Amino acid sequence: MKQSFITSYLTFYLKASVALENNFIKVSNPNTVLKVIPLGAQNKTIPVEQISSVDDSFSLDFKSFVWGIIFAVIGFNMLGSSFIGGLILAAYGVLTILSSFQTVLSLNLTSGGQHTISVVVFEKSKLSMCKETIESLIQRRYDNTNVAKHTENQTTALVDAIKNK
Description:
Number of helices: 4
């Protein structure tokens, strides 16, 4: 399974992605300056055994929100003197404000670290599906390594075999 997410409306063409390959989760998150200029991506491959839990939450990137308000106000004030310049600044400000409302997926690692992916709020349903898939992988790992469960199953099979003789 591979899922892509929009991280900002200004750079809708740059997408974060989460790919599940065998027992690994590959995460790619684009890096930008001022949410406009692309600067590569942060890529990480995490073994499922290293993930203790997955959380999702809603957040507001306050710096981006304030930054967007400042540019939107400046842009709307410039509309009278320089329509094109004002329109560009206002559009940048409004899109930055919209992008500041984020849904965050946090992969909590067994080592105590955390890896987060922030996406625009309208991508929440795709992020929730991704979270459920990762949780099922974690559950499967716990089921496969549950010694008590396997010992109980083996004991039951042995007792049934002795009774049937």
